[in-house]
Design brief:
The complex is a heterotrimer of chains A (357), B (271) and C (317). Chain A is of the alpha+beta class. Chain A has two domains: 229 residues, Rossmann fold (3-Layer(aba) Sandwich), CATH 3.40.50; 119 residues, Beta Barrel (OB fold (Dihydrolipoamide Acetyltransferase, E2P)). Helix content of chain A is 24%, strand content 34%. Chain B has a domain of 166 residues: Orthogonal Bundle (MetI-like fold), CATH 1.10.3720. Chain B is 78% helix and 0% strand. Chain B is built from twelve helices and no strands. Chain B starts with a helix and ends with a helix. In chain C, helix 4 packs across helix 10. The chains are: A alpha+beta (357), B mainly alpha (271), C mainly alpha (317). At the B-C interface, helix 1, helix 3, helix 4, helix 5 and helix 6 of B face helix 2, helix 4, helix 5, helix 6 and helix 7 of C.
Amino acid sequence: MAPFIRLKSISKQFADVVAVDDVSLDIEKGELFCLLGASGCGKSTLLRLLAGFEPPTKGTIEIDGQDMAGVAPADRPVNFMFQSYALFPHMSVANNIGYGLRRAGMRGTELAERVDSLLKLVRLHKLGGRKPHQLSGGQRQRVALARALARRPKLLLLDEPLAALDKKLREDTQFELVDIQEKLGTTFIVVTHDQEEAMTLAGRIGIMDAGQLVQVDAPRRLYERPKSSFVADFLGTISFVDGVVASRDKTSITIGGDLNICAACGDDLPVGAAVKLAIRPEKITLSRSKSGDVNEIEVVVEDLAYLGFATNYRVKTASGQMFKLQQQQRRSLDPPLSWDEKGYVHFDPQDVIVLQH
Amino acid sequence: MGRMNGLVLSLGALGFGILYLPIIVMVIFSFNAGKLVSVWSGASLKWYAGLLENDQLLSAFGTSLLIAVWAATIATIFGICIAVAFVRFGNFRSRLALSAIASAPLVMPEIVTGLSMLLLFISMESLLGWPSGRGVDTIIIAHATFGMCFAAVVIQARLRDFDMAIEEAAADLGATQPFIFLSITLPVIAPAIVAAWLLAFTLSFDDLVIASFVSGPGSSTLPIVIFSKVRLGVTPEINALATVMIVVVAVAVIGASWGIRRRLSSRDQNQ
Amino acid sequence: MMGRGMWKYLVNVPAVTGRRLVIALPLIWLAVFFFLPLVETLQVSFTSPRRGIPPYEPLWGIADDGFFTNFTTGNYALLLQYWSDYFGPAFNSIKLAFFSTLVCLLFAYPMAWLIARSNEKWRTILLVLVMLPFWTSSLLRIYALIGSLNPNGFINAAGLWLGLIDAPIQMMQTDFSIYMGMVLTYLPLMILPLYAVMVRLDADLLDAAADLGGSGVQIFRTIILPLTVPGIIAGSLLVFIPAVGEFVIPALLGGPDQLMMGKVLWTEFFRNRDWPVASAIAMLLLAILTVPIIYARYQDGRDAAAETPNPKQAETG
């Protein structure tokens, strides 16, 4: 069966700027999908193409099997929630939410009841008569959400829905958003620049950079198995080691030089190939003494930050290679290392990510 | 934003057309050798040449210029006072009065203002002996009066956006108020002051109705002369004169806005 | 020009005196040269004309046998008596000004929208194009219109030449020529307040309305129109109030059927030399305009108080 939403080779060009560059993407029905990227990467443009505010320069968009070429925003089974909320300032909350329903011809008690149920859904039940300027930021956000859900769209597009909220409110609203999505079963596409938000909300994340879709995967796979150093660096913290393949066997490679790191690798990489290795900070352990294992490197503590539940370390080898690691607070016989002390980092070959670019 | 695109565009274009078509026609026919606006008799500059010899027009031009410069200057100075009072002085005692009296001239029909000012000048003359007769100075006073209200609006707009932090920094460094205003505030809002002066100048230079009431023998302004000629019909010299004035204004306005754009973009680049 | 002593004095003026001066200067000037004249006009409207200078009796004075007054309501009686000569033009002025405002609005609204929704470059160009006529003399613009509308003017000549018409159409001295003159003169004044409001309209609101199923017309009716009402009101007042008292336009473009208050006043004053009646007419004009002027002041105050325009609650369709 064809996927619910299919983008085929979508490109969008403004004058001499390519905002979206040959993006192809399939999204399943009922998914909560996140488009993640830095400012200017094209994610908001892609969202607007889906909404129909702009036509793509190239490529096709299909929603539920229907080609959206030439279909106006008003006629698409899609609704959009704006980053600025775009609430109509001269209308009450109830009239804002009911706007789309009125355009569809709904009137009278049917309209009132539906608006009422939407107000309950976003927990704004008593505030139907207020005007937007009389509401808090969080309340306005919920009005925008309710308004966008009113017409029961097949696809809901959310442009940085939580960006304007303060941290505490954002965390609470993240879970509410997931709840509502699961309850309604509507397909959501959320655009955000906040990776924590993407990781929390999404079933799958698409990372964008300079108009291109770089990798699409579930959060765990993106984090543990990034396909490029861009993605690896974009999510969380990571340590990179540049090297050249010195020797290899069927399941692993070893890079040469004074670091001599062994990484599990099934790819067919010839000796002499340039690689970039990457290791997540929680996969690296730091200890005072050698244990004789593979991938044990002598380092000096450059800097540390005590966080309470863990300590972040920046350590450096004699040759200048930097590692960032996070050490959980743990009962240990050895006292934890402090600044300028010598120690040994260790990590498992299975935890080393092999990247080629 | 292409909603109702066709209708908006055509109405808009028609609007611009109405605004400009008569002027364009007049400019073209100012170069017409013949007198009529309906028949093109070949190109000629003779009407322009005639302008230079028309003493009446030339002296009226000079009078208008003199009056406009004086009126604009007085208007700008008082306009600055009004603007400062409204933006900076909070709720002072006579605020309501000043507000009413400074905004009424903006919408009052000129004919009422003109007549009433003349009556005032006459009774002033009989009570105080001044002004003795109407002439250039009465026109200047009249033009300055409504000019300052317009100037105030322009300067007020700029003053509202003014970043007070600059003045506070100066005060912190030891400067006192009048000095701060003269040496810091005024230079920063200078473009608005210039704009206000130009606006008052234009309003004065182009004024017909008020000048007609408060002028006297020997103080005919250019609009008064043009009007008396025009009542007799379309004359080619007026075509030429009008073209000259419109071209001068056009060059000035376009040059000014181009200059402003360049300043703004170079400022953006420096940031 | 300023000696150092004077400069020193100026910059060391204590703040309070400075404040008082800054307020007093324009206040006194305007009180003397704007308000007092209106009082004077009111006075003269209650006197009678005479030969001599000035051509009206003084309202009061002291003579050998004591205080005397020439108070008379004769001028106002005259206005009422010759109703059609005076109140007729009054209503005509209101009518013509009202419809001129409407026509201006009809053209100004799409023009302002066009400018507000253009990109940076076009917006500056269009604004300059709109303001350019404003900076040129309105007298000259109206004069140019005569050249176009005359029976032997440009439009008729072009029409005849192109074969569109058989005989010259009479366009001068009609309501049409008045409306055209008004549009020519007042269009920039209507465009600017509209533009100011439209340019602040959040583009997202229009996208949102479209996304929620609104057609072009529906979006205009439910979103654009309600939110631009403050601009419409401001522009309309800016045009209507001066238009009622317009003189040049009816004088140059109008005929005997387009009699407006401004022209009547001018005629009474300059031709008939009846200053008291002219003053009475001026008072009549002011009386007509009192309500709109006060309303305009009220709106100004509201707009200044609220940073953003305060649209009325719109009933959405």
